[in-house]
Design brief:
Elements (H helix, E strand, L loop, with lengths): L1 E7 L7 H16 L9 E6 L6 E2 L2 E2 L18 E8 L8 H17 L4 E8 L18 H9 L13
Parallel strand pairs: 1-2, 5-6
Antiparallel strand pairs: 1-5, 3-4
Helix pairs in contact: 1-2
């Protein structure tokens, strides 16, 4: 599953429609690669400015001598962690990162926020959904999961390794 955790100040992503549209755009990164939509989880985690520091300076906060030289501390800082389990992105790394940048641009970069993200890949051997080991990529069972948009039991020969 891709899990995106978007850490942001409470003054950003206040509009539910914005969060919905960003989550949908993120989901489309993966469904374009034939992953079931329900694999994609996006969590918006508001972080108080007094709990988010960049270079020892609270973000956002009024510009101060504590942050000279450095980024404008009055700009909100968005930190995103992406955990990919369902697929390894080695072969498509550059295309994936470009697509992530394209999706984030209108929601974060164009809003003038400072931001960064990182991608972790973990072993799919330690992953279950609804108590089920997910079917292998490209298998008949995974196709059924995508079509139904939910985890359902499957015959090992149709999705196992």
């Amino acid at each position: 599953m891709p899990l995106w955790i978007i850490y942001h100040p409470p003054t950003t992503f206040e509009n539910e429609e914005t969060k919905k549209n960003l989550a949908k755009a993120i989901t489309e990164i993966y469904t374009a690669g034939k992953l079931p939509a329900f694999y994609v989880v996006v969590l918006f985690q508001a972080v108080q400015p007094t709990s988010s520091y960049v270079g020892g300076v609270a973000r956002p906060s009024p510009p101060s001598e504590d942050n000279k030289p450095g980024p404008d501390s009055s700009k909100p800082f968005i930190r995103i962690t992406i955990q990919n389990i369902a697929r390894k992105i080695d072969a498509v790394r550059d295309r994936f990162l470009t697509r992530v940048d394209e999706v984030l641009k209108p929601f974060i970069e164009d809003a003038g926020y400072h931001w960064e993200y990182s991608v972790d890949e973990t072993s799919r051997d330690l992953w279950k959904i609804q108590g089920l080991v997910p079917p292998m990529p490209g298998s008949e069972a995974e196709g059924e999961w995508a079509r139904l948009n939910e985890a359902v039991p499957f015959e090992m020969g149709k999705g196992g390794s």
